Amino acid sequence: MKPPKAMRGGIPICFPQFGNCGTLERHGFARNRMWALDEEHPGLSRSDSGSRSLVDLILKPSEEDQKSWPHSFEFRLRISLTKDGDLSLVSRIRNVNGKPFSFSFAYHTYLSVSDISEVRIEGLETLDYLDNLSQRERHTEQGDAITFESEVDRVYVSSPNVIAVLDHEKKRTFVIRKDGLPDTVVWNPWEKKAKTMADFGDEEYKQTLCVDAAAAERPITLRPGEEWTGRLELSAVPSTNCSDHLDQPGIM
Prior knowledge:
This protein has three helices and 17 strands. The chain has helices at about 65-70, 190-195, 240-245, and strands at about 15, 35, 45, 50-60, 75-80, 85-95, 100-105, 110, 120, 130, 135-140, 150-155, 160-165, 170-180, 185-190, 210-220, 225-240. The protein starts with 12 loop residues before the first strand and ends in a 6-residue tail after the last helix. About 30% of the residues are buried. The model has no long low-confidence stretch (mean pLDDT about 90).
């Protein structure tokens, strides 16, 4: 729980690198840095309607960061929570450098599930994915939905903006909406790998699933002065209402 060790839980922000596809530390440095309240925004407040609370944070590179990644940026993050429990994160990354830079990104979302063998993901069927367990080989998803019987570490490319994670035992569905993030990463270490991870309990893989809204296959490039925005909205609804919820527009 102490820096610079990454936390395994919540929604770590992977920037400016996702995974090991680059020269930086795994998943980049943003998730291991102390963020500040954004003084250009109200900090912690309620929206005008009173239906949600929000906080605005900002991250700028330190001298140490620029030694390993020599670019200047402003990363603004707005986190908001509605009274119904809908969580949204909006990231805005601006290039304040004199030259272009490229980055990959992910909201590394850890979901708590009742039993991984009773979970299915809908919305990714028939898509191509990169399999990180076999040197990022490209495959096509064949099933009607994604279920889990062994370790999974995949990047589904050009994925839809709405994805559902159905937990049959809890009769609950996580609805993930995203914008500006073309890919979806699905990860569960399963039994063998879980036992090799010092910060992960041997049995915790059964109650854990990561489904990440990401820009992982192709880097995002910003020219000087340009800004990129990536949005995530996460809701938990009764599975009986899932289809109706999927048809509703987001609140982002």
